[in-house]
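User: Let's play a game. I give you a shape written as tokens, and you guess the letters that built it. Ready? Here's round one.
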């Protein structure tokens, strides 16, 4: 059952369309999610940077002797060059993704307190502070060339961003952190970490993904259903054609034709071509039936005559007509040869690719015939020498049968039009062929002069054989009016150099 469904054009078209749409939806959905996430993260970056710069501005204007404090609803950290936390949001309980995981500021000794520690040690303390300050400046210079160039109160223009988590008032969320550096007089280089929640980004992405997971299967179902219905409607005429062809095959009635849909598309053209094929097949079958009937009729007369003569000869040997028996036998032999040649031509037998001089062949076929003159110039053709010779023999026999006294054969080379042609013209001085019958005489078993005897007139296959051989050799055979008033048969074959 599965193989039968997949063998259906409608099923394959539906499956292919659904797969294409599914791939397109997946790619489009992925692009939408990535773009949405990128935009929302960009908004979080902007919000985090704005918060970090606002805190950095407050720190920059806070006097050195006043402790730093952060009043913000989002997680904020302020660290010095030693990664020591000096200020943080009041409700911050836990943080990750920043420079330090500390959430409570550590006490820091002010320079004035250190100076009052003792007179004897004042100079040493000052020297130590100067050394520490020098070390801090060197470390800051090593960390960032951009930060080393900051002036007191100046905020860096190039923030950095990281992802992390933070716990505020017992609630843990994902955050996007922006790090901004600020040079504060009396405090050194400080780094402000401020976070912006990613809950909106995550919620929007989850919502979009949920919509896609629900909507995509529904959309694929709609696409599959529509494709199934459309292909069913489109292929309905094809099913009608198939059904009618099956009925024609079962009934063997070649007169029937398949229905042609009024759509003017490929299916309609298929139906027209099918009908043309049926018409050609019907014509071929009818022609074959006529051929068999005519051949049987033509064979019946000489066979009956020959049988009669043999029976008479068996009963009365003195009455045996040997000449008549020989003539009937020759006639049967010629008719059998003609039928065999026609059968080979109908079977599509290709002529041999032999080059020969058509003028020499025409002279040989005309040799010994009374009243036949030949005017020929050498011209070579390719094909079956025997079949072309048979064409010339049939044309000469036909011309002598209808000529009053003279038959003229001319062979020439014609280069008019496309390519070069070898032309053989056989003309007689008889009554000619009526214009209305000039194509009919090339049909099999057709004889215009029904009053003549069969012995003189032949079976009516000579011209049909000549036309078929000419076509098989890529040429033509036509009939017209000769200058002498009789018939002019013109054989044209492709010439070779």
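Assistant: Ready! My guess for every position:
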């Amino acid at each position: 059952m599965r193989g039968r469904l997949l063998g259906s054009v409608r099923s394959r078209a539906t499956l292919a369309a659904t797969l294409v749409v599914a791939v397109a939806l997946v790619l489009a959905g992925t692009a939408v999610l990535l773009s949405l996430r990128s935009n929302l993260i960009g908004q979080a970056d902007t919000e985090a940077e704005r918060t970090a710069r606002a805190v950095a501005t407050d720190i920059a204007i806070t006097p050195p002797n006043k402790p730093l404090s952060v009043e913000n609803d989002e997680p904020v950290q302020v660290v010095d060059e030693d990664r020591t936390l000096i200020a943080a949001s009041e409700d911050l309980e836990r943080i990750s993704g920043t420079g330090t995981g500390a959430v409570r500021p550590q006490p820091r000794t002010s320079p004035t307190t250190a100076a009052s520690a003792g007179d004897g040690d004042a100079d040493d303390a000052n020297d130590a502070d100067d050394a520490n300050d020098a070390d801090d400046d060197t470390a800051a210079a090593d960390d960032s060339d951009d930060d080393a160039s900051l002036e007191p109160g100046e905020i860096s223009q190039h923030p950095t961003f990281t992802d992390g988590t933070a716990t505020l008032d017992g609630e843990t969320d994902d955050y996007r952190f922006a790090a901004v550096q600020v040079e504060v007089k009396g405090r050194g280089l400080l780094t402000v970490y401020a976070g912006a929640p990613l809950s909106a980004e995550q919620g929007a992405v989850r919502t979009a993904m949920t919509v896609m997971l629900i909507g995509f299967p529904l959309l694929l179902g709609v696409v599959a259903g529509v494709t199934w219905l459309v292909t069913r409607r489109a292929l309905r005429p094809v099913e009608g054609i198939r059904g009618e062809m099956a009925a024609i095959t079962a009934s063997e009635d070649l007169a029937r034709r398949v229905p042609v849909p009024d759509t003017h598309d490929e299916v309609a053209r298929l139906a027209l071509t099918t009908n043309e094929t049926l018409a050609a097949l019907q014509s071929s079958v009818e022609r074959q039936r006529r051929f068999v009937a005519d051949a049987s009729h033509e064979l019946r007369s000489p066979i009956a005559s020959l049988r009669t003569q043999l029976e008479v000869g068996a009963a009365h040997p003195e009455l045996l007509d040997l000449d008549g028996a020989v003539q009937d036998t020759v006639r049967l032999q010629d008719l059998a040869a003609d039928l065999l040649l026609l059968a080979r031509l109908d079977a599509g037998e290709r002529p041999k690719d032999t080059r020969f001089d058509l003028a020499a062949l025409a002279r040989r076929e005309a040799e010994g015939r009374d009243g036949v003159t030949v005017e020929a110039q050498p011209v070579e053709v390719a094909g079956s020498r025997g079949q072309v010779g048979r064409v010339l023999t049939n044309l000469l026999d036909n011309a002598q049968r209808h000529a009053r006294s003279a038959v003229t054969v001319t062979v020439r080379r014609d280069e008019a039009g496309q390519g070069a042609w070898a032309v053989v013209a056989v003309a007689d001085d008889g009554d000619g062929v009526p214009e209305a019958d000039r194509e009919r005489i090339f049909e099999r078993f057709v004889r215009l002069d029904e009053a003549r005897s069969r012995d003189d007139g032949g079976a009516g296959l000579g011209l049909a054989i000549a036309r078929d051989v000419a076509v098989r050799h890529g040429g033509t055979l036509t009939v017209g009016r000769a200058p002498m008033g009789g018939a002019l048969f013109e054989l044209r074959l492709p010439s070779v150099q």
